[in-house]
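Q: Could you write out the predicted structure for this multi-component system? I'm mainly interested in how the pieces pack against one another.
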Amino acid sequence: MESNAMVWFRKGLRIHDNPALDRARRGSSHVFPVFVLDPSYLRPDPSASSPGSARAGLNRIRFLLDCLTDLDSSLRRLGSHLLVLRGDPDPAAVICRVIKEWRIGKLCYEFDSEPYGQARDKQVEDFTSKLGIEVFTPVSHTLFDPVEVITKNGGRPPLTYKSFVALAGEPSESLVETYSQLPPVGNVGESELLSIPTIEELGYKDIEQEEFSPFRGGETVALQRLEEALKDKEWIANFEKPKGDPSAFMKPATTVLSPYLKFGCLSSRYFYQCLQDVYQTVGKHTSPPVSLVGQLLWREFFYTVAFGTPNFNQMKGNKICKQIPWGDDEELLVAWREGRTGYPWIDAIMIQLKKWGWMHHLARHSVACFLTRGDLFIHWEKGRDVFERLLIDSDWAINNGNWLWLSCSAFFNQYHRIYSPISFGKKYDPDGKYIRHFLPMLKDMPSEYIYEPWTAPLCVQKKANCIVGKDYPRPVVAHSTASKECRRRMGEAYAKDQSIETDNKAVSGSKIV
Ligand code: FAD
C-alpha cells in the first residue's frame, strides 16, 4: 500500500535535527520534499533604493538560493531531491493543490510563529483538516514552544529576560540520527517543477555593486562555521556580550551564525547542545544574559514576546510599546539609510548593512539609537523596515524586538543613555580601519579627524582628497544639540505615557556609553 508524505520546507532548510523531515520519512513509501518560491519575495524591484526585491535585499535572496542549492545537494546524496514550485497565486494555494495531485497522506512542516507564517499555515490547515490528512508541525525553529511558555505564565508572555529564563527551563534534545537514505520522491504528474534559479535568472542583471556579502548560505557552511567557532573552547567559554569589538569586520567578534539560524540551516537546539558540551569540558564559563547560550535565549525571549503580543511590530495598538510622537523627516531618513549622515561611524555601519547585510550587534545599537531617540527622532518602524529588507539575518521577532528596545519603546527605558556617534566607535577602532574600508572616500583622512572629518582644516581635507560638503557630507545634525532635544522629547513622551505593560518596573540593559 502506497503512503505518500510531504515535507514542506520554508525555514528549517537543513537535514540535521529536522523533526518534520524525520516524521515524513517514517513509514512512508515516498517523500516529496518541497520548497515554494514566492515571486513577491524574489522579483526585482527597480524602484527600491538598493538591489533586491521589495521585501528582500539581493544579499538575502542570494543567501536563500545558496541554502536551497545546498539542501538539494544533501537530499540528492540521500537518494531524494528538492521539488521547487512556483508560488502562484501564493505558496499555501500551491501546497493545497499538490497535496491533492500527489495523494499526500501525511504533511510535515515546521511550526512558524510569525504572523505571515501563521496566516499562510492556517490556509493549509483548513484545507487538510477537510481531507483528513495527517499533519505534523513540530516546534523546531526555536528552542522552546512560545505557546507553552505563555501558557506556563498564565496566558501572557513574560516581559523580562529574567522571567523568561526562569520559566523556560531546558530545551528538548536534538535528533541525533543521521540518514543514509530517504524514501524516493513519488510521481509528480503534470506539476511544473522549477530548477533553483540563479540571481541572473531571477532578473538581477548588471548590478553595480563592488562588494557583496562574504557570508554564503546553506547548512554545509553553517555547520562548518559552527565547528570552527567551537574549536576555540576558551573563546566560547569566555564569550561576553556586550563586550566585543563592533568594528572588527575581517574577523567579526561574534559567531555570525544569525543568518543560518534565520533560515534554519542551523538548528538552534543543536547549537545550544554544542555550547553545553563545550561548557562541560572547560568547566568555568560565562552565563546568561552575556554568554553565548545567553544570546540564544535572547532569541527565544523575543520570539515568545512577539508571539504573545498583538501588533508587536508597530507602535499603535501595541500594549507594551511606549507611545512616542516620532518625527517623519524623509530627508533625514534617506541620509541615514544611504549612509550619508556625515557621521562616519554611523555611515560606515549603514554601508556595511547595504554591502554585507550583516553588522555587529553594537553597530546595530549605534545606528538604531542614532535614528530614533539619540539624534534624528525618527520612528523606529522606519528603521525596522530598512533592516528588515537588507539584513541577511532579518527576523521578524528579533528585529522588531530589538528596535523596540533600542528606541526605548519597550523592554529598556534609559533613554538618557545615548550612544555617541563619535566617541563610541573611536573607543574600539581609534584609527578608523572600519570606516576606511566601508567609506573609501575617507581612506586617507588622518586618524585624528576620521570620526569628525568636518573638523579637519581645509588643507588636511585637500591632502586627504576628501572635501567635506563635496566628497563626504557635512553632519545632518549637531549631535550635542540634537541628542539634548531628543532627551527632552523622550522625557515628555514618557511623562505622558504611563500605561505600559511590564512585569517588572525596569529591564536592566546593556551598558551604553
Ligand atoms: P552572536 O552574538 O554570535 O549570537 C548567537 C545568536 O544569538 C545569534 O545568531 C542570534 O540568533 C542570537 N542573538 C544574539 N543577539 C541577540 C539579540 N540581541 N536578540 C535576539 N537574538 C540574539 N538579529 C537577528 O537575528 N535578526 C534581526 O533581524 C536582528 N535585528 C536587530 C535589530 C537591531 C536594531 C538590533 C540592535 C539587533 C538586531 N539583531 C537581530 C540582534 C543581534 O544584533 C544579532 O542577532 C547578532 O548581531 C547576530 O550576530 P551573531 O550571529 O554573530 O550573534
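A: Regarding packing and overall arrangement: Residues 504-513 have pLDDT under 50 and may be disordered.
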